Amino acid sequence: LKPPTTPAPGDGMCQRFAIPYGKYCYYVYSGEVGFSWPDSEHYCQAGRMELVSIHSRAEVEFLKSFNYSKNMNLWIGLTRDNNFGWAWTDETSVSFLNWAPNEPNSAFHPGNMAENCVEMYKDGRWNDNNCMEKKSFPLFKSCNYTETTNLKSETSKTQWHIWH
């Protein structure tokens, strides 16, 4: 499998099948083959993307609206840090959490596999889970973009810039 390529700098468009929201483009991997959390992260980074980081209730609601199989959970970019806390893979601050009741529970799985990675349930709540579990629909965020105004002419022109 080959991840989608990111748009060229300055074209201001999300990739095909990606959905713009805020300053980002979002894409749901909907292939038949599930990925572990580390494989999902690698897949994203190979396409110069990140597993999604979530910083508000509005983002949770937006992500719930994606057309993905409603019986599947999605990996998100939250994982345990070295201090047994939580960190986003894109290194943004952990300013919002949306745990399901009694989560995170740090349960152990056969073979002493700890729950160090986070999935989002179809209702938008989060669960810590074994990172090696296969999820069919990892979720990522790609390039952010911002609107700037070109003031060189009398008429204002919108230019879009992609940041990687």
From TrEMBL:
<dbReference type="Pfam" id="PF00059">
    <property type="entry name" value="Lectin_C"/>
</dbReference>
<feature type="domain" description="C-type lectin">
    <location>
        <begin position="21"/>
        <end position="137"/>
    </location>
</feature>
<dbReference type="InterPro" id="IPR001304">
    <property type="entry name" value="C-type_lectin-like"/>
</dbReference>
<dbReference type="InterPro" id="IPR050111">
    <property type="entry name" value="C-type_lectin/snaclec_domain"/>
</dbReference>
<protein>
    <recommendedName>
        <fullName>C-type lectin domain-containing protein</fullName>
    </recommendedName>
</protein>
<dbReference type="InterPro" id="IPR016186">
    <property type="entry name" value="C-type_lectin-like/link_sf"/>
</dbReference>
<dbReference type="InterPro" id="IPR016187">
    <property type="entry name" value="CTDL_fold"/>
</dbReference>
